[in-house]
Amino acid sequence: MSPSNILTRTKVPEVTLGFWLIKIAATTLGETGGDAVSMSMQLGYLVGTAIFAAMFLVAVWAQVRATSFHPFLYWVTIMATTMVGTTLADFADRTLGIGYAGGTSLLLVLLIASLLVWHRATGSVSMGTVSTPRAEPFYWVTIMFSQTLGTALGDWTADTAGLGYTGAALIFGGLLALIVAAHFLTRISATLLFWAAFILTRPLGAVVGDFLDKPVAAGGLALSRYSASLALLAFMVLGILLFRQRAAEQSH
Question: How far is CA 153 from the centre of its chain?
């Protein structure tokens, strides 16, 4: 890649259909993988959070130090945020006793605050500005908050609200469909719609992940968390290889 191309490209991918398919797979993997470590391995939510937080910090460090977009590095970092989001939300909701509603409210406040601080510091929260060491930490902290919020919101919708896993999946899938329609039919900010969709893919992945591995009596399919995680990981790798992975154009 020539120096001129590096200057006009970010270190995050173009937002395409392939991007969203891989993102949903990553969020679902975050649920099954996070539960596999904290529950199936019986390490607990706190230890699981520590493991994935370390993975997240190392991945973000590598992402910030990189001089160009690297698809596998980017998606490993996304995967780390989904897993730490799963165990962190479960730790807050179940171990600390905050509850799904309390956890969702707290994380929503943190997410909005992160976006506001990011916008104040850089002037934009667009994907097209994630090209400097100054913007990248804001981007990844915002993503981590959105992934953790999504876990709590998905659990609240499926369990506390009583919609079940399939009902919650239909709700979040329907909301995503409305965002797609708004993108094509309205003049609503593309940046606003992107973050709304990005946030909603996480609870969708959370309830789909729970549907895959929760007991049949609880409304799930009772699949092995390990096999479900491996299948989702394989889908992600295949998606990265098949779908064009190109850095998003830089906004000026």
Answer: 13
* Gyration radius of the chain's alpha carbons: 18
Which residue in 151, 56, 53, 44 sits closest to 98, CA to CA? 151
The b/e string for 225-247 (b: 16+ C-beta within 10 A; e otherwise) is: beebbebbbebbeebbeebebeb
The confidence score (pLDDT) of residue 252 equals 47
Burial 179-199 (b: 16+ CB within 10 A, else e): beebeeeeeeeebebbbbbbb
User: What is the spatial distance between Cα 184 and Cα 180, in angstroms, rounded to a whole number?
Assistant: 7
Q: Is there a contact between 248 and 8 (Cβ–Cβ < 8 Å)? A: no
- Phi, then psi, of 10 in degrees rounded to 5: -100, -175
What is the distance, to the nearest Å, from the Cα of residue 137 to the centroid of all Cα atoms in its chain? Answer: 15
Q: What does the alpha-carbon distance between residue 34 and residue 31 come to, in Å, rounded to a whole number?
A: 5
The predicted pLDDT at position 7 comes to 45
3 residue type, one letter: P
Which residues of the chain fall below pLDDT 50?
A: 1-7, 252
229 sits in which H/E element:
helix 225-242
Residues 41-60 have pLDDT tens digits of: 999 999 999 999 999 999 99
- pLDDT value, residue 5: 44
- Count Cβ atoms within 10 A of the Cβ of residue 37 and give its class: 0-12 exposed, 13-18 middle, 19 or more buried: buried
Q: How far apart are CA 144 and CA 142, in angstroms?
A: 5
Residue 162 — φ and ψ, nearest 5°?
A: 75, 20
pLDDT of the residue at 208: 93
What local confidence, expressed as pLDDT, does residue 8 receive?
Answer: 52
pTM of the entire structure?
A: 0.89
